[in-house]
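Methods — Computational structure assignment.
A single polypeptide chain was analysed. Its primary sequence is given first, followed by the predicted tertiary structure written as structure tokens.
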Amino acid sequence: MPDIEITKPHRITLKEKLMTHPVGTREQWLKARLELLQAEKELTRRSDELALRRQALPWVRVEQDYSFDAEPGKLSLGGPVPRPNAITRV
């Protein structure tokens, strides 16, 4: 099997980016910007729709006893609700 030389990908410098980036007219920029804006709006609409679908998922009864470490001590999902920010991650 022949030896294969593996090299790191070349990182483009700012100077190289500035020297090779396409330059166009104001009309070309505006057309491309409006197309991009439409794509961004569609992405937002799809993201919002996905969030609604996620929120509409049916709930499932929690049968297992979960407990959390909090300032007043161990708390469970079925216990009293502590003041905000009392529960910390373990």
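Note: The mean pLDDT is 83.
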